[in-house]
Model the fold of this input.
Amino acid sequence: MTRPASVLNETLTADAALRARAARVVPGGMWGHLNAARLPEGYPQFFASAQGCRIRDVDGREYIDFMCSWGPVLLGHRHPEIEAAAQAQAALGDCFNGPGEVMVDLAEDLVAMVPHADWAMFQKNGGDATTACVTIARAGTTRRKVLVARGSYHGALPWCSPSLIGVTSEDRAHLVHFDYNDVASLQAAVTDAGNDLAAILVTAFRHDMGRDLELPTVEFAQAARAACDAAGAALIIDEVRAGLRLDLGGSWEALGVRPDLAAWSKAIANGHALAAVTGNDRFRDAATKVFVTGSFWCGTVAMAAARATLRIARETGVPAHLHAMGLRLRDGLAALADQHGVAIRQSGPPQMPLVLFDDDLDVRKGRAFCSAALRHGAFFHPQHNMFLSAAHGPADIDEALEAAAQGFRAVRELR
Amino acid sequence: MTRPASVLNETLTADAALRARAARVVPGGMWGHLNAARLPEGYPQFFASAQGCRIRDVDGREYIDFMCSWGPVLLGHRHPEIEAAAQAQAALGDCFNGPGEVMVDLAEDLVAMVPHADWAMFQKNGGDATTACVTIARAGTTRRKVLVARGSYHGALPWCSPSLIGVTSEDRAHLVHFDYNDVASLQAAVTDAGNDLAAILVTAFRHDMGRDLELPTVEFAQAARAACDAAGAALIIDEVRAGLRLDLGGSWEALGVRPDLAAWSKAIANGHALAAVTGNDRFRDAATKVFVTGSFWCGTVAMAAARATLRIARETGVPAHLHAMGLRLRDGLAALADQHGVAIRQSGPPQMPLVLFDDDLDVRKGRAFCSAALRHGAFFHPQHNMFLSAAHGPADIDEALEAAAQGFRAVRELR
Done:
């Protein structure tokens, strides 16, 4: 028996109404990684507002946010100092016939903060930055082969998209694959590339969707550096997802390994659209010669936001705070899982945690956990690494753990 | 004899000081099309503020702006209604874990305004949109060949960049070239693509740097449409540069030819970073299946700005105003050229004019004209099409013509 339309209308949420409208005018209702169709039951597709570590959906439900807009929100939503910097710049203008002084200031900030960086350039998407790194590496070496780890995400352009739909085999003609953290497979790929090795492109850590996160081993990082040095190729670290959360100088600083080029985006302007490439002097000429550009790439407002973001991140020691809050979350989740007799695996750096359930190939447990936690006010993700922000304090973590307790209860009640 | 450093320092402009700083931390001092190195003498690299049709450089010199940030500024810099809409959205938040209601509103606005559009998707760069169109066309046809006009600009990604530095031949493996407005060459390219024709990608009009602009002929537009219909391929119009200035429904509406897919960017949010793909129902499934995404693609602030831009553009009939102001400029320049005995060629739609000088292969005349006009307060470009905005009124045009008179005088005084 179908319910009469009047009843449906009365119970229709704002989110459901927007999904219905979107289904008519947006293919599939939403594109790419922001499509909520694959998220657990109850997850909203549409959001109305955000403040600090709290987000509010279009039905007025508020959640403690552990996705941080899939990474960009580093210091909390609508951080007052960052928004003030952005508005002060907007009052002068955003997009001109050329850059503003803020572009030079920001490049100087990055060069001062990132040890490997002798220069910086700016873009809008993470994929703009990874693509520019590859182009610069090829220009600088006059070679073609780029080594990438199987399953690593470097953007959604045809050369790197996780999907092959609409992509030609030529788009990936010169990629050579290896396995992350597997030195032997890296060296085999280097051999395979022969004297045509332009670059090794590697994410800051292994953060492939749906599998345990892995930090790079020192051996792996050093082998990548050594291979590039031996071949005169570029070591490119894709910092798009991890950048600024692990180490403000670059995610591999603790390993003692520095790249020639790095791609940054997401967190560098706390949610304002910006990306950057940093590079060393070996690749300065190449970066000068390539033609990479975009209509909005020197928009001053996002750069002003980035300067404020970097300054606050430096002054407040953001990675350490995120680490502490991530550990608090991790320890709390471990205790709760134990208490409920549910086996979980927590992986990755505490600043970007992933929680997976044992014996959960179909993600049934993960989805039940997330659905229940969501109903109790915590926005987790069942398969993708999550993100802490500087706006998460101990009380927020503890409140989220109460929601997580409901999640573990739901998992225990499965079957 | 070299001047002592003290004198140099005294005369150093803020622009020169910034160029010196930028040379240290930005490859080549600036990237891509915004690098002022190739502009005539006296052109600033760095800008401080803008309002309406006036821009101000970092040395406080003000110009009537005929570049409009290379296209994005459609209604004038810092348009109060657009900035109010952007700020109202920013007060709620910009970048969330999913889209805001404004994404649906904006998609509905575009579907209502653009006759070929049954749906819309959003990105950040014009190149994101052209790349998505090609990917969608390939996905929808399961073919590979894309026909593009020789010399047309579709972005700076490896598959379409005007530079081959750092680009591999495979990046362009499935492009087939034809000559814009040349039906026979188009048909030869179609034959060449055979049963592998995915799309014809064509700019709204021919706007290749340094050569006279050309509007598409009806015959050419109809031939492109017919070839796509016969082959089941996608006709893609690249509206990135021309979009909203010629016809709000699409630049080929007057020709009676509609595309299957169109790429928009630059002007659609009056300077806020946004791009869009519009498409018809033939390509809805393909657009649903491809994986295209970006961290900031559903940022709500740029979308709120776009809604305001489209509304004002509709309500005030922006293309007609730009046309009238462009004609006033064109007529004035023609009269001045005649008066000074200097032969010029004016081409393209009046909304996006180009002025070239006869017998000027080295652009010596064009540069002398622009340098002198710049000193008298008008920011023209010697080789790239320019852009009118709704903020240009008759008095601004007349004032710019006085600066142009100084430009013609400078040309006459050459040799």
About this structure: Confidence is low (pLDDT under 50) at residues 1-9 of chain A. The longest strand of chain A covers residues 197-203. Residues 133 and 396 of chain A are 38 Å apart (CA to CA). Chain A touches chain B through 112 residues (CB under 8 Å).
